[in-house]
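Fold this sequence, please.
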Amino acid sequence: MGRARHAWRSRPPCAPQATAPPGEGGSEAGGHGESGYGERGYGKGAWLAELAPLTDPADVVRSVLEALGADAEPRVGGDWRRDPPDPAERLVASLAGRELLIILDNCEHVIDAAAGLAELVLRRCPGVRVLATSREPLGVPGETLAPIPPLGLPPEGVTPGEAGGYPAVRLLLDRARAVSPGFALDEHTTPHVVTICRRLDGMPLAIELAAARIRALGSERLAARLGDRFRLLTGGSRTALPRHRTLSAVVEWSWDLLTPEERTMAERLAVFAGGAALDDAELVCGDDGLDVVAVLPSLVDKSLLETPGDGRFRMLETIRAYALQRLTGNGELDRYRRRHAAHFLRLAEEAEPRLRGAGQLEWMARLTAEQDNLNAALRWAVDSREAETALRLCGTLSWYWWLRGHRGQAADWAGQVLELVPEGPSAGLVRAYAGCRFAVTVTRLGTIWMEPGRLEEIRRELGDLVEAARREGPVHPMLPILRAVVTAMAGRREEAAEMLDAYAASDDPWLAGSALMIRGGSLGLPGDSERDVEEAVRRFRALGERWGLSEALLTLATLRARRDAPTADLIDEIAGLTEGWVSADDTISTLTRLAELRLRSGDAEGAAADVAAARSHVSAGVSPYALVQVSMGEAKVARSRGDLDGAVAAHEEALAVLEAHPAIPQQLGTAYAEYGRALLAKATSTARSRVITWRCAPSAPLPTCQFSRPCWPGWP
């Protein structure tokens, strides 16, 4: 697929070494190296010595002699020339004065002998170059490594046309059509083909074995059964080496070449998902005298681990699945799953308070890098019914998930964790339980806005829960903020205002800043609003908390815009505070709100640029409410330019999304009101009938709650 040819052309002709994990195509890369050297006109060309069938290292030299056709000397003038008694000396003699390339294919099981031969030839035969393929480097002077990467993989959600441009998909298609000529990429098969290629890490041999099963299983069933890949992917070519006939045999070949310490390390490291930093690997895996620092580099050298350059060690998923099977067979899986979960629980609890201060970006990046490990730890805790670990980890991560925009994921996890304690939490776990309830409650607020009875029920439950949690110790400041929000939504505005007054006087600067922002943004008197929010800005700025500062500045800009005061300085600062680390949904929310502020100040071009940037963040994973925000922003920009047709079309796109999903009443009301204004601006009879019909329809009431967007940062 073009990987190896590029590698050889970019390497100097000394002693290239192709290293690759099992099944990645190192031998094929060697073949490309052979043709590459031939294209360069290098001497007498290239000679391939197949080392895979060898069992005795002493046969390495003889295999090269056979490849060169020098295993016996020809007659000269009717007499036999005397052969050098040592095969290595005979090889040197046969290469004397020649210019050629020797390819040593599959060196890993005879690595010492192959290294000795390469060193000898390079030292004594200056016109000869050696290209070796192996799972690990030879370790000889002048060696240049050329790691062979997996085949290029498509992202999730690509179209059939896009998927066909990726090497992994092209290989699967080619091999699948050999056994099922009618197989093609279409809207149905493409997602499954992408899943197969991604689950198999782009490993060529694994993809070939999978393609052979498409005739019997089809792409959908094959993708669904890859959890049992070692039993499923068998039946390779009968003419292939035994180790290339099944996926299990491919991995076993490499596994058998490891030392006992390397096997132990690989098995334990398999409990990590998404890779491991060195310090984390030491803490989880380094007991029983295992020297993690010494063993990890040897696993990299033997291509069982990858180091992408970010300081982490990663296993291909197929190798990880095999190592987990081994760890299970040894009876140690639960032990190291438990150690892994305990370690990442400590990390989450260490990070959580730092997400509200000057170290916010650093700790967000740390948790994001470990997202797969955190999920794996939580999955183990839930599946093992380890209620304490599950509650603490989920409750601690709830604020991280909120900041990252993973609110649906947070609610899903919290729902599973809360099912472990149907009777409520035990002593000492109320704060963790409250964190889980936070994750569930905030995702429901929009849909129950117009249900006073449900809001009142949640208000009472939340109040009791916060008070019980406080008896255990300090609670996350977002819990009392949520309590005040729900209290206001339930119609108890004076009670909510009293709560916010108390929180604004708190010693916790984050709680105080949030209370001031909400009080000034939604509940404050006209003369006090801006002063409250300005103080909130000062508090968040002093903390170094970028997310809170962004929300406070947006609230302050909105208040100033209402009285036609300048907002350009605020807009400029807001734009860069959360760029690059919040979710696509939150990025879209910020950009569309900035666009509205720019429109109010007369900056139509700036607003159009913000909306276009918001549209660029739309992907398969964004929420429908984010799509609505983008369409509404586009409608406002179009109307500001006098493009009423474009405005109406954008409004209709937004309404189509809202009508297909459970709608937040506030957003639904705003969307219909803006759509009505656009239609009325066109002065059509259809417009008047549509607006009147909607305003009279009991199924779509206008929201009456004035506890609006600025009171709840991050609201869609």
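Residues 582-716 form a domain with the Serine Threonine Protein Phosphatase 5, Tetratricopeptide repeat fold (CATH 1.25.40.10). The CA atoms of residues 323 and 384 lie 20 Å apart.
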